[in-house]
Amino acid sequence: MKSAASHMSKNDDKPGQGSENTRPEARLPKGLQDASAQEIRATEAMLATIKKVFELYGFEPLASPAIEYTDALGKFLPDEDRPNAGVFSFQDDDDQWLSLRYDLTAPLARYVAENYQTLPKPFRRYQTGPVWRNEKPGPGRFRQFMQFDADTVGAPSVAADAELCMLATDTMEALGVPRGDYVVKVNSRKILDGVLDSIGIEDGRRLTVLRAIDKFDRLGEEGVRLLLGEGRKDESGDFTKGAGLDAGDIDKVIASTSPLSGGNDAVLDQLVQLSDTEAGAEGIEELKTIASLVEAGGYADRIVIDPSIVRGLEYYTGPVFETELTPTIKDQRGQTIRLGSVMSGGRYDGLVARFTGERVPATGISVGVSRLLFGLQLLGKYKGDESKGPVVVLVFDKDRLGNYQRMVKTLRDAGIRAELYLGSSGMKAQMKYADKRGSPCVVIQGGDEKERGEVQIKDLVLGATLTKIEDREEYLKKQAEAQFAVPEADLVGGVSKVLDRYKA
């Protein structure tokens, strides 16, 4: 493959030289997205709510870097022969492989291993930040996305797993998702591990099996059977190589991971009949304990046992759980889409041991922030900051910039969002600018107003409605309210009068 430099002439790095053909195309890579001010505010509002719930449960914040050594992250995503598969990786000057983190859990294991002696046990932390997956994007599925994690390290009891399932339900309801519009599904990986042990599936193929089962609710039994066998071709024609199991082994895997009907007690009774391995028996006992705890906490209607939940990451060793939005969700084109899990996790007792050699019990849950926000917005929630933009002080006389700047400072000192128009356009274009900024009002002071010691305040929201008023008296009344003069000394009071009209 040629480098970018091979396509450039020796003069292309000089200003004003080089042909137009060497200009880069302004395009966004697939699976990535830009975020507008409204989206950022919506995300921040949602994160603030999540943080409040996580803090209520006693978790403390932690931050770790976006880049880790690849071997420290571990190759828990597909194709272990290539560090670049599933994750975005590169080599540094010392030829060491570095990777962008694909989740927040693997970096936590490295942090705990480095600081284990000084940490309180159990150690409870939450963290939010972007993660990266070198995977095929889809609806609500991006290559870069935010996660918000809570983890408990050093707690061997599955009571810690049950608590995280309860945390998921409380978080969803704090975000405005009512009961019945979400469900938390929980299973134990030990049940499937027992089946895979019994049919002799070695470690190299286990991840392929896990990722196949993880697609059960999206592809159905037929699609999963293909992925457990020779492979599957999707709608685009891309072929995914399967796990290579024979028909009998596929039947055993499907039987132990198919969704079951009934309440938690009924599902557990059916699992007892399906699982005849020692590991499976341990997993069922874990699920019985979790079911008992969520029943005692009053969560049994929202936290359900579902054997189809296995999670696609290889490091899980016990209970695993996923939170799904249950309403039918349609995109902007009216097409039904399925978001999948918006909050998930599980127990990973062996992850810290990769560094220390000693098994450290740990469990965690992760919010897929981008995907959850995407779903909530399609459900009519978290539209973003509905408040107006800043008040704009227009520039009528360019030789009086200092005077206009003092007005802006006066407004800011009063806690009012304000900006001075810094462009070079005339008044008409300045008004259009203020409209685009979503400004509630503008401040105008020409030479006549300056002589009288006044400023004009124009309410842009009210002004936009004047053309719809047919009654003349009503029109004149609203017109007087939409633009009025106040003494310059009462600038804050005049602007506040407009802002008060639109307070929630």
TrEMBL record:
GO biological process: histidyl-tRNA aminoacylation
Residues of the Aminoacyl-transfer RNA synthetases class-II family profile domain: 44-376
SUPFAM superfamilies for this protein: Class II aaRS ABD-related, Class II aaRS and biotin synthetases
Class in the EC hierarchy, top level: ligase
Keywords attached to this entry: Aminoacyl-tRNA synthetase, ATP-binding, Cytoplasm, Ligase, Nucleotide-binding, Protein biosynthesis
Binding residue positions for L-histidine: D103, L104, T105, R133, Q147, D151, R311, Y315, Y316
GO molecular function, one term: ATP binding
Cellular component GO terms held in the UniProt record: cytoplasm
Family matches, as InterPro entries: aa-tRNA-synth_II (IPR006195), aa-tRNA-synth_II/BPL/LPL (IPR045864), Anticodon-bd (IPR004154), Anticodon-bd_dom_sf (IPR036621), His-tRNA-ligase (IPR015807), HisRS-like_core (IPR041715), HisRS/HisZ (IPR004516), HisRS_anticodon (IPR033656)
Subunit structure and binding partners: Homodimer.
Family assignment from sequence similarity: Belongs to the class-II aminoacyl-tRNA synthetase family.
Protein name: Histidine--tRNA ligase
Species of provenance: Methyloceanibacter caenitepidi
